[in-house]
Amino acid sequence: MNDNAQAKRPLVAVVDTTFSRFDMGTAALNELGAFAVRVVRITVPGIKDLGVECKRQLDAGADIALALGMVGGADIDRQCAHEASLGIQMAKIATSKHIIEAFVHENEARNEKDLVSLFDDRTRKHARNAARMVLDPTGLVAHAGQGLRQGRRDVGALRS
Hints:
alpha/beta, Rossmann fold, four-stranded parallel β-sheet, 5 helices, 44% helix
């Protein structure tokens, strides 16, 4: 592919943390490799740093960002996750671009094997959704109301 064609591909910013117990960034990169997108990866210390780095990447030309982080099991960790999420929301509004927030809460898992599964599944599905959003902005309409989940099995749609 020539440089001009490569430059026309949407740019996805993958922003992950050193705090996470799972390499969410690599999982996202592996998933995004199946799509016609360019990727930049930045790693920050913790989830409260995600919002500003996502905004920096969006301001620098990224079309969408993935904010990937782990939330510990303590009360203070959940409070920090809420604050981080608010920062991400502010960055979305400030840039008028999407930031797909993929947080895994350590206390969601039954054990470490389940935690790894949650990390991997949630990260990959959110990465896939980010790519789809920039490649085909109306493409997710076909999946509306289907009870799709990231991290667990889909629950399915309700029927009237």
